[in-house]
Design brief:
CATH architecture: Beta Barrel
CATH topology: Barwin-like endoglucanases
Strand order of the largest sheet: 1-5-2-4-3-6
Low-confidence stretches: 18-23
Shape: globular
Number of domains: 1
Largest sheet: 6 strands, mixed, barrel
Order of helices and strands: HEEHEEEHE
Number of helices: 3
Helix content: 10-25%
Radius of gyration: 19 Å
Number of strands: 6
CATH superfamily: RlpA-like domain
Length: 137
């Protein structure tokens, strides 16, 4: 038992000392976008509706969004965390939309088509952070 504790302590100290001393800060960005909703159903997406354009697997119940490609260019990249007006928790960028859309997000609503239709199409404010590395000593 003591050996396990010592090993865990050594691993914890080693991990702490090996971490980079570079701090990460971010620049906050906010946009007003059109927000729609989508489901992981073949007629709405593709023949494999649970796989995103980034190659991630969608899991119903988790908070994901797809973003238009112009927002990708604005720093709203894969796995970025996004605050959407009207929601308490953050969403994760897991999918990208067809090139024809601009300033648009699509909120993932699992397979609940009624919930997606009820959401409809709205203008909402989104906010996210673009990380920058502080390399000062």
């Amino acid at each position: 038992m003591r050996v396990r504790i010592y090993i865990l302590l050594i691993i914890a100290v080693f991990t702490f000392n090996c971490k980079s001393k570079v701090e990460t800060h971010c620049v906050s960005k906010a946009f007003e976008v059109t927000a729609t909703a989508y489901n992981s159903l073949a007629y709405q997406t593709s023949s494999n509706p649970n796989i995103t354009a980034f190659g991630d697997s969608l899991k119903p119940g988790l908070r994901y969004i797809a973003v238009s490609r112009d927002l990708l260019d604005s720093g709203l990249v894969h796995n970025a965390k996004v605050k959407i007006q009207g929601f308490d928790s953050l969403f994760t960028v897991k999918d990208k939309m067809n090139r024809r859309w601009r300033k648009r997000i699509d909120i993932y609503m699992g397979i609940n088509v009624k919930k997606a239709k009820k959401w409809g199409k709205r203008r909402v404010q989104i906010e996210y952070c673009i990380p920058i590395k502080d390399t000062s000593p």
